[in-house]
Amino acid sequence: MDSLPVLAFLTAAIPTFFSPGPNNLMLMASGAKFGLKRTIPHLLGIVVGFPLMVFVVGLGLGEVFAQFPQIKQVMRWLAAAYFAWMAFTLLGLKIGNVRARERPMRFIEAALFQWINPKAWAMAISFVTLVVTSAQASRLLLLSALTLGCLALGPFSGSLWMVFGQQLERFLRRTGLEQYLGLILAGLMMLAVVLFLL
């Protein structure tokens, strides 16, 4: 297999996987609010859901998406509405104040969220364009390699953001600033809303 598609993927994937976005911000918020152990199903939903989305986009769904840009706009507004709702719920968050019926996102919910996540769509289409359509090798072979690459990177980036959320919660508790946790997380969520709509 030509090394150029692999290099193109790594150059694009490392910054996008590790930068703030819907998945990473939600993992950070969940790590802060529920802890690492309870956030693992959420992480696994992303780790499985996003590579599956990349594979489906590579099989041709990305072309449908390009033909109907209205779909992109609808998904953008859905994701923005979801994040605005999350920001609102995080405003009242206080450390140690998780209500009994509150829970982190489940595996299937996190996997399905990828389909309305604008950053996930942008990444999937970019990766497929960079790796699959720019190379001469077998499309299915490259698409499979791309999917496995996404599957390999997801646990590392997601875990980093979960740990960051947990450490932020601990830092705020130690410094007596725990009442600001909800405000910080809500602010980050609203920043994501603004970025969705730009």
Give short descriptive properties of this protein:
198 residues; mainly alpha
Q: Would you summarize the structure shown here?
A:
The protein has one domain.
Topology record:
Layout lengths: L2 H16 L3 H13 L1 H32 L1 H23 L15 H7 L4 H15 L6 H36 L6 H17 L1
Helix pairs in contact: 1-6, 1-7, 2-3, 2-7, 2-8, 3-5, 3-6, 3-7, 4-8, 6-7
SSE arrangement, N to C: HHHHHHHH
Number of domains: 1
State the share of residues found in helices, binned by percent.
over 70%
* Low-pLDDT windows of residues: none
Structure class: mainly alpha
**Strand-residue proportion:** under 5%
The first-to-last residue Cα distance is 38 Å
The major beta sheet can be summarized as: none
Gross morphology = globular
Q: Provide the residue-averaged pLDDT.
A: 84
Tally of helical segments: 8
Global Rg = 18 Å
Q: Tell me the total number of β-strands.
A: 0
Explained architecture:
One of its GO terms (biological process) is cysteine export across plasma membrane. It is a multi-pass membrane protein. GO terms for molecular function: amino acid transmembrane transporter activity. It is a single chain. This protein has 198 residues and is mainly alpha-helical. It has one domain (3-197). The protein is built from eight helices and no strands. It has helices spanning 3-18, 22-34, 36-67, 69-91, 107-113, 118-132, 139-174, 181-197. Helix 1 (3-18) packs parallel to helix 7 (139-174) and helix 4 (69-91) runs antiparallel to helix 8 (181-197). It is globular and about 55 Å long. The model has no long low-confidence stretch (mean pLDDT 84).
